[in-house]
Structures are given as structure tokens and as C-alpha cells.
């Protein structure tokens, strides 16, 4: 009997290293990464997050032109990729009245479409493991329920202070209003609680818990643990994060330049200069 294909869904906050983990996993010959499939519809229609790279595929082509994605559309029997309207699954609780039912119906269409896309990627690439680094807790757990695949998660967490400092930096770079680090910290902690709530719907044996900081203590060791957890062959930890014939959706802007994989601790000195933020962040990390 053919082995059931595996989905590795990375659930995390933004600025937590999901692109790095997705990129490291994509170096296995058995694994294909699609990046943040949640944003595929947005990238096709050039709307939502992605304007910094003009919503292109990581290969540099638009989602209408990219060879890889065109093979996927053909496999789905879609003549015009713009028929793919929506790949987002949103919690109906965020909607009011009739819109709740509308959202539920949109969600079930999106779940079915996502499963068809996963199938098409497996058939097109002949890989038996697919990484989806969408990060979204509700999207991921909706796809997990009744999945035809061997659906598993990496729940990736990074020090809340590091995430807050990184978000504030990118916020500024995009010219957005100033938000204090403490506010970022509290909002990142809320995000962590949301993931925790969503993960209660998931069987614990299907979740690989990964701390970004622990990963760097011994990357090869973590990669070996992932290989036995997810059932792919072990391989040598790459030295660099780099795109290598990848066709991924979204991710950190840093992915376009080849970078040595090493822990960046510059946030520590920024945190130390802000005692309230630093202590509060330290405590929230400890709570979990
Ligand atoms: Zn491409």
C-alpha cells in the first residue's frame, strides 16, 4: 500500500522563523514547500500581504506565469488561475449575523480547494511530504480536521521579546504608526494564547513543539528529531538559508538573500535597555 502523504503545517506568529524552518525542510529531496499557501489566492489577485515582492512567486515570476504553479493549475483542471479566488479560512466568530454562515460556506470551499491543491502538488512533484508555512492557527486546524492526509504541525515559538522588537522594526520600515514594545508584547502573548486554544483541538501526537531558540542550540539534532517525527530520511543541516529552485508563496523579505543560518541575538541589547518590557517579556515567556 502506498504510504499516506504527509503535510507539515507550520503554526506560529509572524517574525518567528517560519520561513527559515520551511527553507531548511525544503532541502530534503522528499519534501516540497509551498510557503504560505493561505496567501495563494491573494498572490494570484495581487491583494493583501505581498506588495513588497509584487505578490510574485519566490522564483520571481508572477503566480500567473510561474511554471511550477501552472502545472498545479493544470492538474486542478483550472484554465485560468484567477478562478482561484480564496485560499483563506477565517474563524466565523469574527463575523456578525448572516456573515457567519457566509464565512462557514466560504471556509468549507477553501478547505476542499486546499486539499485539491495539496493533492496536485504531490502528484506534480512526486514528493511525499509537503510543508505549508501559512502559520495561521484557525486555517491550520480547519485543514487538520478530517484531513485525507497524514496532517501534522510544527508549533514554532520564539521569545516574545524578540518577536516584538522585530515586528516594531518592520512596522517602522513600512512607515506605519509607532506602537510601543509593551503593546507588541501583549498582542504577541494574545496570539500565543490563541494558538494554544486552537491546538487543544489537535491530538498531541500530531504536534512537534519547537522553540526557535532551542533550534539553534543544535540545528542538526533538531532536524534529526523532525526526520523521525515526520518520517522523512535524515539529511545534513544546510549552512545557509537560500532559495534553490523554490516556488513558495510569501515569507520574510530576507529570504531573497543567501544568509548563514545562525542565531541573531541583537534583540537582547535592545531589550536590556527597556527594563519593564524586558521583565514582562521574560515572565510571559515563562508562563508559556
Ligand atoms: Zn515559481
Task: Give the fraction of residues assigned to helices.
Answer: 40-55%
Secondary-structure element series = EHEHHHEHEHHEHHEEHH
Total E-strand runs = 7
End-to-end C-alpha gap: 41 Å
Mean pLDDT: 95
Main sheet, how many strands, which sense, barrel? 5 strands, parallel
Number of domains: 1
User: What ranges have pLDDT less than 50 throughout 5 or more consecutive residues?
Assistant: none
| Shape call | globular
> What is the count of helical runs?
11
Write down the oligomeric state: single chain
The set of bound ligands, ions and cofactors reads: zinc ion
Q: How big a fraction of the residues is strand? A: 5-15%
Spatial strand sequence of the major β-sheet: 2-3-1-4-5
The whole-angstrom Rg is 19 Å
How would you characterize the overall build of this protein?
The protein has 288 residues and is α/β, with parallel strands linked by helices. The protein has one domain. The protein contains eleven helices and seven strands. It has helices spanning 18-25, 40-45, 67-75, 98-125, 137-144, 160-173, 181-199, 212-217, 219-230, 266-272, 275-287, and strands at residues 6-11, 31-35, 129-135, 150-157, 207-211, 240-241, 259-260. The chain has a five-stranded parallel sheet, with helices on both faces. The protein starts with 5 loop residues before the first strand and ends with a helix. The mean pLDDT is 95. Zinc ion (ZN) binds at residues 57, 59, 61, 66, 68-69, 247.
Amino acid at each position: 500500500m502506498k504510504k499516506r502523504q504527509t503535510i507539515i503545517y507550520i503554526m506560529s506568529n509572524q517574525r518567528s522563523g517560519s520561513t527559515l524552518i520551511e527553507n531548511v525542510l525544503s532541502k530534503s529531496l522528499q519534501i516540497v514547500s509551498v510557503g504560505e499557501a493561505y496567501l495563494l489566492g491573494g498572490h494570484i489577485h495581487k491583494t493583501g500581504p505581498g506588495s513588497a515582492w509584487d505578490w510574485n512567486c519566490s522564483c520571481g515570476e508572477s503566480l500567473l506565469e510561474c511554471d511550477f504553479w501552472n502545472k498545479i493549475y493544470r492538474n486542478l483542471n483550472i484554465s485560468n488561475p484567477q478562478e482561484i479566488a480564496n485560499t483563506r479560512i477565517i474563524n466565523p466568530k469574527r463575523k456578525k449575523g448572516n456573515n457567519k454562515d457566509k464565512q462557514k460556506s466560504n471556509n468549507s470551499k477553501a478547505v476542499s480547494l486546499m486539499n485539491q491543491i495539496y493533492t496536485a502538488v504531490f502528484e506534480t512533484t512526486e514528493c511525499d511530504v509537503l510543508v505549508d508555512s501559512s502559520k495561521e492557527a484557525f486555517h491550520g486546524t480547519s485543514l487538520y480536521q478530517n484531513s485525507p492526509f497524514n496532517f501534522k504541525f510544527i508549533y514554532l515559538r520564539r521569545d516574545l521579546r524578540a518577536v516584538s522588537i522585530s515586528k516594531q522594526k518592520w512596522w517602522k520600515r513600512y512607515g506605519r504608526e509607532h506602537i510601543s514594545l509593551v503593546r507588541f508584547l501583549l498582542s504577541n502573548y494574545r496570539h500565543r494564547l490563541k494558538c494554544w486554544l486552537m491546538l487543544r483541538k489537535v491530538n498531541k501526537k500530531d504536534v512537534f513543539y519547537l522553540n526557535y531558540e532551542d533550534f539553534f542550540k543544535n540545528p542538526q539534532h533538531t532536524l534529526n528529531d523532525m526526520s523521525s517525527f515526520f518520517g522523512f530520511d535524515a539529511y545534513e543541516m544546510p549552512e545557509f538559508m537560500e532559495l534553490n529552485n523554490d516556488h513558495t508563496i510569501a515569507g520574510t523579505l530576507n529570504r531573497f538573500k543567501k544568509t548563514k543560518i545562525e542565531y541573531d541575538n541583537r534583540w537582547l541589547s535592545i531589550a536590556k535597555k527597556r527594563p519593564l518590557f524586558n521583565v514582562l517579556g521574560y515572565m510571559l515567556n515563562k508562563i508559556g
